[in-house]
Design goal:
This protein is of the alpha/beta class. Among the domains are: 136 residues, Rossmann fold (3-Layer(aba) Sandwich); 108 residues, Alpha Horseshoe (Serine Threonine Protein Phosphatase 5, Tetratricopeptide repeat); 67 residues, Immunoglobulin-like, CATH 2.60.40. Helix content is 41%, strand content 15%. The chain has 13 helices and twelve strands. The strands form three sheets. The chain has a five-stranded mixed β-sheet. A hairpin with a 5-residue loop joins strand 10 and strand 11. Helix 1 packs across helix 13 and helix 7 crosses helix 8. The longest helix is centred in the first third of the chain and has 39 residues.
């Protein structure tokens, strides 16, 4: 019985790229498996060799030490059953310190600057800069430039002159010269009031207590009560020492305290440009600007505003009874911050803002502030009073940029969307995707590997071509028969 022709695959068009890719994939998998197996065999072999070396005795070791020492004749050797059995205790597992994960590739400090395009937009730019810092700061994954470290505050002023006046007044008071002492204390108080940033409230209150005592000793009761009132406003908890002052001074001081408590209180609202300044009232922190109405006793109050990058501002703000007073100063930037803002203004008006991936001015700003990211807002004031804002951001390290995000600060939804885009850029979500090279096994670099790939590809191609040929009659008796299909 003549066997029938072998089963044929269904005839269909075949691409020669398929067998070549299939062969390459098979060989790559085999090569990687071979390389991994070789690496495992090499590791196991090395470990076996190390264990054998540890088992062999060291050279020069005394062989007699390994031989058992014979027991004395009069001592019976201990039996194996009598030997105490020590339980094997596993070695305690030392806790390993949790390794700190590396920071993400996009991590870096951020600086935000707003530039007014005209004089009418200065206040809007300042408000926008503070608002952007606050809204971006709501994300805890961002790192900010430490402005206090970059721009340290100026050194404090010397108060030696005021201290000297106070000591002179104390000497005159002890020598029973109240008129001359009162003059020295008044000069010392005036000097300290000219330096509200650096003067401690307790020091000023102490001067006013001595001033009131000198006036009282000189017969000026009204002047003494006024001085004691100033002392109570500066440091309400400070009292005259009974060891230094008589009962008359204590009684007058308490009378001034009672009279101050009966007066109607006033209110003080504190704001600043830029906002966000720390507010100190008589040395105690009240928060940051803007501050709403704060109830205070009538009279002068020592107020100090501090903001990193700006000169501290201090004043003695007068508060009237039953009235609302406002304090709204414009803070003066330090020279170092002023130079940074000048660079930002140059960048905002240069042609490189839209043409260059990284304008030179931006790189200089980042260098001065120690920042990787620089966010710049161009603020223009329209005639209707509405601000027009364009946001830009740069990654100085990778030279990426986010260009011209338009935003209307009055539209909460539009502003939120613009802030989200800036945040996505700062966290690498809008950066171009990077393609990393795929690591191939070392065997791929061998010439015989590609020769094998070619051979397998040819064999596979021939097999598929034979399998897809149309059916032919059985092979003839001899080769070359036309019915053989060759």
């Amino acid at each position: 019985m003549v066997p029938g022709p072998p089963a044929r695959l269904a005839s269909c068009p075949v691409s020669l790229k398929t067998p070549l890719a299939l062969s390459l994939a098979l060989l790559l998998g085999t090569a990687s498996g071979v390389s991994e197996a070789a690496s495992r065999r090499g590791a196991s072999t090395s470990s076996v060799r190390k264990s054998k070396k540890k088992a062999q005795p060291q050279a020069g070791q005394d062989e007699s030490a390994s031989e058992p020492t014979p027991a004395p004749a009069d001592q019976e050797p201990a039996r194996a059953a009598d030997a105490p059995v020590q339980a094997h205790k596993p070695a305690p597992v030392q806790p390993t310190a949790a390794s700190t994960p590396p920071p993400p590739a996009w991590a870096g400090r951020v600086a935000v600057l707003a530039v007014p395009m005209d004089g009418s937009a200065s206040e809007s730019a300042s408000r926008l800069e503070t608002g952007l810092r606050g809204e971006l700061g709501a994300w805890t994954d961002l790192q900010w430039v430490d402005m206090a470290a970059v721009f340290p505050p100026p050194p404090p002023a010397s108060l030696a002159q005021g201290d000297a006046l106070f000591e002179e007044g104390k000497g005159l008071y002890d020598n029973l010269d109240p008129e001359a002492a009162s003059k020295k204390f008044s000069e010392a108080a005036a000097f300290y009031q000219r330096h509200p940033v650096d003067t401690k409230p307790e020091r000023l209150a102490r001067v006013f207590i001595f001033l009131g005592a000198s006036r009282l000793l000189n017969g000026d009761s009204a002047g003494a009560q006024e001085a004691f009132t100033h002392a109570l406003l500066s440091a309400p908890t400070l009292q005259p020492e009974s060891e230094l002052f008589g009962q008359e001074v204590l009684d007058t001081f308490n009378a001034a305290k009672a009279a101050l408590s009966r007066q109607p209180r006033g209110t003080l609202a504190v704001d600043s440009l830029p906002a966000g300044a720390q507010v100190l009232l008589h040395g105690q922190s009240l928060g940051t600007t803007p501050l709403k109405d704060v109830e205070l006793a009538p009279g002068p109050h020592q107020v100090v505003l501090t903001l990193p990058g700006y000169k501290p501002l201090g004043t003695f703000q007068e508060v009237e009874p039953s009235q609302r007073d406002e304090l709204r100063p414009t803070l003066e930037p330090l020279p170092e911050l002023a130079s940074v803002r000048a660079l930002a203004a140059e960048v905002s008006t240069s042609k490189a803002l839209d043409s260059d991936p990284l304008p030179p001015g931006v790189a200089r700003i980042a260098e001065k502030l120690g920042a990787r990211y620089v966010v710049l807002a161009r603020v223009a004031q329209e005639r209707q009073g509405r601000a027009e804002v364009s946001l830009y951001a740069w990654d100085v390290q990778l030279k990426n940029r986010l260009r011209g995000v338009k935003v209307n600060p009055a539209d909460a939804r539009e502003r939120q969307e613009a802030v989200r885009q800036v945040h996505d850029f700062l966290t690498g979500k809008l950066a171009p995707d990077s393609s990393l090279p795929i690591a191939l096994p070392a065997v791929v670099k061998k010439p015989w590997f590609w020769a094998a790939v070619g051979g397998v590809a040819v064999a596979t191609t021939a097999s598929i071509l034979l399998a897809t040929q149309p059916q032919k009659p059985p092979l003839g008796i001899r080769l070359g028969n036309p019915g053989a299909g060759w």
